[in-house]
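Troubleshooting log. The previous structure file for this entry was overwritten by mistake, so regenerating from the original sequence record. Sequence copied from the archived sheet and checked twice against the printout by T.R.
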Amino acid sequence: MAADTIHLFLNPTAGRGRAGRRQSRILELLEQSGVAIECHASRSLGDLEDQVLQHTNDGAKRVVVAGGDGSVHEAVNGIMRSNNNASLGVIPTGTGNDFAKACDIPINWEHATQLLADRIAAAETPRKIDVGRFNDRYFANGAGIGFDAKVNHVARSFQLPIGDLVYLLAIFRTMIDRIASPQLQITADDFTWEGPLTLAAICNGQWVGGMFKIAPMAKNADGKMELLIVKPVTRRRIVSLLPKLMGGEHMQEDELVHRSVTTLRIKAESPMPSHLDGEVQALQTDFELSVLPGALDLL
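Regenerated output below.
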């Protein structure tokens, strides 16, 4: 394996199949960097992560992912689990593309690919991006416990070609069921919280669900995460908060508690749904987070 080879990992189903349809054009643009390209397609959930891990262990130095936040999540976990280090490039072809937005990567996939090829050709130094560790998994953009994890689960069940609106639709579908307010104990650095809540979000980037600017103060290279706790709210209150969430104008609302954190422990009285970068995790009662400053090299 040539050390300077670019390993392109593509999720053909990302963005309702858009990534697969764009493969030939992505390869054409990347080849302008003058570096050899090897293309790898994921075949199932978790396969992209396993392939990234294998190739990074075998010496791959540059990993490029064409996909959405789920593909980025798998690639980050593959790199972070490896015994070696590899830089990550991202071509946004998903639905929300929250990580790309946090990194100021153009959402136009052709523009993003061209800029990436130019940076590789110019041998630019990668940027350092913080990574979160949540129990035994890693995340690049954000994690959540409670209501937003349920929303992500519902969004995954929709196959509608409506882009970011799938998350808005999922919110309304999730609200049909009872909005749970479980009891949680939260300890973060010098901050403690105990009581019922609707959700707890831990943000490395500003955006979730493609259209919600949930943490407008978040920066993914500052060595910390933004913890947002939402106290129990009604369905009507959620609806009234949605426009503010879209514009990042919700931080002064009474139901919201915000702290910047570097470590976090959460204990729930019963198993809770959670997500990492939109990927729904197994039900758990205990959650432990730490921030790994500058742990990811971004091409």
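The longest helix spans residues 69-81. Archived copy saved in two places this time.
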